[in-house]
């Protein structure tokens, strides 16, 4: 109000001055009024108005120049200050005392300020430490996120050092094209991710930790329609490498390709290192055999054996050509999950895709460096030995030992002793002693199937389809309907949980 009144007063003064000047300009020296035309009067008024506008613009321009000069001077001082601080931080050496002092100050601030939210990763506010570690802050929204700058020379040196390094090859995926070997089927180089379905999952509300495996953390997920699924995600301590990414890709791809089988676990979604698959509340076949084995009837042993063999035969014949394009690589009772009256095969991330030699027109073997346990084929315990899909057939024989006896193969023997015996072609010595009635018709069928699987030379080992044909024939002869839903003592599997 005061400023506006002052402007009005000044306006009145200016108008009075202009009116006096106007009066003086309209009179001659002797006081007689001048006679001017209306055009001249309008031109003179326009000239005065333009002069006032120009003078006002010049004044505002001078003020703007002064502001620009002040801004440039302040920016120059700020740049000089930052350069000086940079030199001070590079020349300074971080000390433990300095870091502890800064951390203690940060802790005091946290305690005094209740609204302060602690970041997920503690931020060490030490510019000298950041400079010495070559850390650069790139993300203004994450106070704890820094990047380590690697120069081009360091990058070239690392690449040269790792060119022939075992560690470099260790983290790379197994090549599908190598020499004369190429993928047996085009789908072996593909994948079918469905990330949208994965992103719809509310992790906090729908998921809970169930268990952990060798590579994955297993979650139980409740879907919006009430259905229960399993979510497999690569364990936190596992490296997010290209090799592990390809491992998850193979696992998901094989479940997708075998979706036509009733004895392979179903897959619903795959994205990166995560999968959504079918849930089986009955647990694994291994858990069932070791806990409720005495409740299994003799005909049910043959039913279980035929179902697990059917799953392996389906896996080894995805294209219907009779030539296996993949291996499971970890064939055991723990890989079979009970779902709706059937034991379904799962967990294909240790398997390998079989390649084809375009010159010899034969399947190309592969190698896996380290193999433990006691259920594997002899060639798996020889370092660098070629391996084929026949290793799964030997694993089938070891699985049938648990079905017929209720105990794991080579029960009571250390891994080292059992592996040495397998390499020498020795079979478990007291297998028949572990069976309550080895001369019974069902046990005789299963023991013969085990002998068919345990052929020492991989090239002479029969295919899974041959073992399946034998078991189906014997089941038909004995009047056992192997493909019916599995029941325990006349009750559905819901009584077993």
From TrEMBL:
Q: Which InterPro entries match?
A: Kinase-like_dom_sf, Prot_kinase_dom, Ser_Thr_kinase
Q: Where is this region: Disordered?
A: 1-48
**Entries under SMART domains matching the protein:** S_TKc
Return the Polar residues bias intervals. 34-48
Q: Tell me the ranges covered by the Protein kinase domain, including all copies.
A: 204-476
Could you cite one Gene Ontology molecular function of this protein?
protein serine/threonine kinase activity
Give start-end ranges for the coiled-coil region(s): none
Q: What's the Enzyme Commission number for this chain?
A: 2.7.11.1
Reaction it catalyzes: L-seryl-[protein] + ATP = O-phospho-L-seryl-[protein] + ADP + H(+); L-threonyl-[protein] + ATP = O-phospho-L-threonyl-[protein] + ADP + H(+)
Q: Which PROSITE patterns does its entry note?
A: PROTEIN_KINASE_DOM (PS50011)
UniProt source species: Cylindrotheca closterium
GO cellular component annotations, sorted alphabetically?
cytoplasm
- Basic and acidic residues composition bias: residue spans: 1-30
Record protein name field: non-specific serine/threonine protein kinase
Q: What class of enzyme is it?
A: transferase
Its keywords, alphabetically, are: ATP-binding, Kinase, Nucleotide-binding, Serine/threonine-protein kinase, Transferase
